[in-house]
Amino acid sequence: MSSTIDEKITKLEDELRETPKNKSTEKHTGVLKSKIAKLRRKKLDLIASSKSGPSYGFDVKKAGDGSAVLIGFPSTGKSTVLTKITSKASKIGHYDFTTTKAIPGILEHRGTQIQLIDLPGIIEEASKGKGRGREILAVARSSDLIVILLERNNPLNIYEKIIDELSKVAIRPGKIRPDIKIVKKDRGGIALSTLFRLTHMSEKTFIDILREYKVMNAAVTVRGDPTMDDLIDVLEGNRVYPKLLVVVNKIDLLSSRKLASLKRKLPNAVFISALEEENLELLKDRIIDELELIQVYLKKQRAKTDYEEPLIVKRDSSIKDVCNKIHRKFKRQFRYAVVSGKSTKHPFQRVGLDHIVQDGDVITIIIKQF
Ligand SMILES: Nc1nc2c(ncn2[C@@H]2O[C@H](COP(=O)(O)OP(=O)(O)OP(=O)(O)O)[C@@H](O)[C@H]2O)c(=O)[nH]1
Ligand SMILES: [Mg+2]
């Protein structure tokens, strides 16, 4: 059954490729893209329901203040990186597919602990299940940061291929969730309100795509200038938006001219040699920076603030996330929190579970006493 879905997807993709991009074909393009997205979702659902749980060797228990995965073609040096920058050794081999399961290690740096996961090499068509594609992509899906590891041969081309495989399973590394709010109504048609003029599609096409998803009556607010794919991402709803870090390994094998040229082509990438331990401190810094962690301080009632051991949480965390991190009972027995810092209008402000904290906040959680 799944092969027929693949065939349908391929057919629609061919049609999409052959469709000229202009105003008169815009609606058709939008409909084709929606159909492809729906079929991909159906396929993902099928894969998910065909398994009873996570596959053996790939069910990694979360640990640390944030999680990152190493994704790359075989033999790019993923296991060497894990072995060099975490407390865990992962088998290194000069042949492909040395690693056969998920190997989690802990990276300790600048007072934080990051779970870094080594995985088998990914290959083309991983999203269709080739290699251990499904398992690899499932681990990637649940992590906060995707570290794409490249090396000297064709790095840009391979980068595109990996991004493509990830995007086929609804992972959008390095992208920001499109800001489109859709509030369904009982009647009244579509009320579309945009902050800027849409340049990637007409309002009519926007509404046609909504209809394709059976959204007939709704108040829709758009910030920014979304593409058709962005709109479909919002309508599909199952997309994840992990952070992205691109790393080029084995620079010891590159001439300085080739290295300079790659740096121009990949300006945001980190260039390392895991083998010769070059730029590994920079790599650790960049992993922590990309995760955008913040520190908050806890203060027990009638006690001094604990500045010694800050709590490390992800940016945009709420009081609820803070509670979850301390102890389960804090959320269960929560009454309110008292917060002083950048996130509050005044010191000692009373807030609820949804309040978003900021770096440096001092927090007291008040719980019900039984
Ligand atoms: N010259 C050089 N070789 C490296 C570097 N990093 C890793 N290698 C070598 O590349 C080969 C593959 O390394 P691994 O760390 O096993 O690569 P991997 O990506 O984990 O490979 P798979 O698990 O098979 O996907 C080994 O022979 C390593 O010694 C580097 O920075 N420079
Ligand atoms: Mg390996």
Topology:
Elements: H1 2-18, H2 26-49, E1 66-72, H3 78-85, E2 103-109, E3 112-118, H4 133-141, E4 145-150, H5 155-168, E5 180-184, E6 190-194, H6 203-212, E7 218-222, H7 228-236, E8 243-248, H8 256-265, E9 270-271, H9 280-291, E10 293-299, E11 305-314, H10 319-326, H11 328-332, E12 334-340, E13 349-351, E14 362-367
Parallel strand pairs: 1-3, 1-4, 4-8, 6-7, 8-9, 10-14
Antiparallel strand pairs: 2-3, 5-7, 10-11, 12-13, 12-14
Helix pairs in contact: 1-2, 2-6, 2-7
The structure holds guanosine-5'-triphosphate (GTP) and magnesium ion.
Magnesium ion binds at residues 78-79, 90, 98-99, 118.
List keywords for this structure.
370 residues, alpha/beta, Rossmann fold, Ubiquitin-like (UB roll), 3 domains, six-stranded mixed beta sheet, five-stranded mixed beta sheet, 14 strands, 22% strand
CATH topology of the largest domain: Rossmann fold
Specify the CATH homologous superfamily of the largest domain.
P-loop containing nucleotide triphosphate hydrolases
Number of strands: 14
Residue windows where pLDDT falls under 50 for at least 5 positions: none
**What would CATH call the class of the largest domain?**
Alpha Beta
Class from secondary-structure proportions: alpha/beta
Measured as a percent range, the helix fraction is 25-40%
CATH architecture of the largest domain: 3-Layer(aba) Sandwich
- End-to-end Cα distance, whole Å, is 55 Å
